[in-house]
Amino acid sequence: MYSFSTEGTCSTKINFTVRDGRVYSVSFENGCNGNLKAISALVEGMPVRELIGKLKGIQCKERGTSCSDQLARAVEKVAKTVSAEVLC
Questions:
Q1: What Cα–Cα distance (Å) separates residue 7 from each residue in 3, 23, 26, 50, 81?
Q2: In Å, what is the CA distance from 1 to each residue of 14, 19, 24, 36?
Q3: Which contacts of 12-16 are long-range, i.e. CB under 8 A and separated by 24 or more positions?
């Protein structure tokens, strides 16, 4: 399980697991409960590369980021530091 503190969003932390190149068990602390549960359900089992491609760069209001962007950044950081196997 990975945990990342967010920056610039209402959510304060994101927890998730990466296994066999896919993302599982995404949960957010704080933030818009319904929307974040929906994001978590939609990305369950999604390949790392696909998640990053779909969510990175999405903005909320004029913050320059969003909870989904923060998730993509966190997953990307894990993918870069863990190993090439994560991206398979």
A1: 13, 21, 17, 22, 20
A2: 10, 10, 9, 18
A3: 14/67, 14/70, 14/71, 14/74, 16/71, 16/74, 16/75
Interatomic CA distance for residues 73 and 39, integer angstroms: 15
- Measure the CA–CA gap between 41 and 76, rounded to whole angstroms: 19
Per the structure block, which two tokens stand in for 26? 């995404």
The phi and psi torsions of 72 (rounded to 5 degrees) equal: -60, -40
Q: In the β-sheet with 46-47, what is the strand arrangement from edge to edge?
A: 2-5, 13-19, 22-29, 46-47
Q: What is the pLDDT of residues 13-60, one digit of tens each?
A: 999 999 999 999 999 999 999 999 999 999 999 999 999 999 999 999
pTM above 0.70, yes or no: yes
AA identity, residue 57: G
Cα-atom radius of gyration of the chain, to the nearest Å?
A: 12
